[in-house]
Specification:
The protein is of the alpha/beta class and about 300 residues long. It folds into two domains: about 5-120, Rossmann fold; about 125-240 and about 280-295, Dihydrodipicolinate Reductase, domain 2 (2-Layer Sandwich), CATH 3.30.360. It is about 35% helix and about 25% strand. It is built from eight helices and 13 strands. The protein has a seven-stranded mixed beta sheet with strand order 3-2-1-4-5-6-13, with helices on both faces. Strands 8-9-10-7-11-12 form a six-stranded mixed beta sheet, with helices on one face. A hairpin with a 2-residue loop joins strand 8 and strand 9 (about 195-205). It is globular and about 55 Å long. The N and C termini lie far apart (about 50 Å). The model has no long low-confidence stretch (mean pLDDT about 90).
């Protein structure tokens, strides 16, 4: 919990997502944006000097803030978050929470021991299309298909399971309410052992069949959800976020859900504990994909 005064918030990392968080939180009246953390001064000054005090290290924030949004590259999530969590500072960390299960467990354990709230930036939980799909009775469905496919863009250190598919693993596990029994890899595309395209079937006991495809090497982007009904009817749903009313976009809804979490209220935000099984399923899929790559290449890329 935080003191009964305006929340003092910092943004750690001023890349694309960090700037989006900055714009989002600026519009939330009960919060004071008091600091940023960014080692690249060009990013700080390129925004016409509107940022508050800039630090070069996350640990320099201790004592000045109540909560932080960590939007650094994923390999920096752990070193940035640990000193803050140890100081009891609440954190919302962009997805993926970390790049391996050991680091995920360390973050969760540290937050629990120091009574800090820890949430993860799975903003697709607030995508109205996904919310609508979650209201449909599973008994009416034969199969769920998800396509989250992007064209080549900025190079990412994370593979496509961590970067894109994790969104759908999150809401599917949340909706189905049970662990996956079996995964079957259908297709793998990779470069230098970085998974760039993955298609797989995921089987859940007593639930519709699930097929998930994620890619960042497509010629044409595709973000769709298809619900196949048992009666032969299909519902095609666009996952692209359309224009929203002011304050009703996924990042703003997520920010307000984070505030609810900090106040001890029921919140739809993705907590780190909820994301652990999502990361575990992602690791199962990644391991099966990399094994398939090794089988094809004889262990060499």
């Amino acid at each position: 919990m935080f003191p009964q005064r305006r929340l003092r918030l910092a943004i750690v990392g001023l890349g694309r997502m960090g700037l989006l968080h900055w714009q989002t939180w600026q519009a939330i009246s009960e919060v004071d944006l008091v600091a940023v953390v960014e080692t690249d001064e060009r990013k700080v000054f390129s925004n016409n000097g509107v940022f508050p005090k800039n630090h070069r290290r996350a640990e320099d924030l201790v004592g000045d803030i109540d909560a932080a949004i960590i939007a650094t590259p994923p390999d920096q999530h752990l070193p940035c978050a640990l000193p803050l969590l140890r100081a009891g500072i609440h954190c919302l960390i962009e997805k993926p929470l970390a790049l391996n299960l050991t680091d995920v467990a360390m973050l969760i354990d540290t937050a629990a021991r120091h009574h800090a709230r820890l949430a993860v930036g799975h903003s697709e939980r607030f995508n109205p299309t996904i919310r609508l799909a979650q209201e449909i009775s599973l008994r009416e469905l034969q199969c769920i298909e998800v396509f989250r496919m992007a064209t080549p863009g900025v190079n990412s250190q994370t593979d496509v399971v961590h970067d894109l598919m994790v969104h759908d693993l999150d809401w599917l596990l949340q909706t189905l309410g049970r662990p996956a029994e079996h995964v079957r890899v259908l297709q793998v595309g990779h470069t230098a052992r970085t998974l760039a395209r993955v298609s797989c079937e995921i089987f859940f006991q007593g639930a519709p069949a699930v097929k998930v495809t994620a890619s960042r090497i497509e010629k044409v982007p595709r973000r769709e959800l298809i619900l196949h009904g048992k009666g032969g009817t299909n519902a095609l749903m666009d996952l692209n976020c359309a224009p929203f009313e002011t304050g009703n976009d996924p990042l703003t809804l997520q920010a307000r859900a984070f505030l609810k979490l900090l106040h001890g209220l029921a919140s739809p935000i993705a907590t780190a504990a909820e994301i652990l099984p999502v990361m575990e399923l992602g690791e199962r899929i990644r391991a099966d994909c990399l094994a398939a790559v090794d089988d094809r290449t004889g262990g060499n890329d």
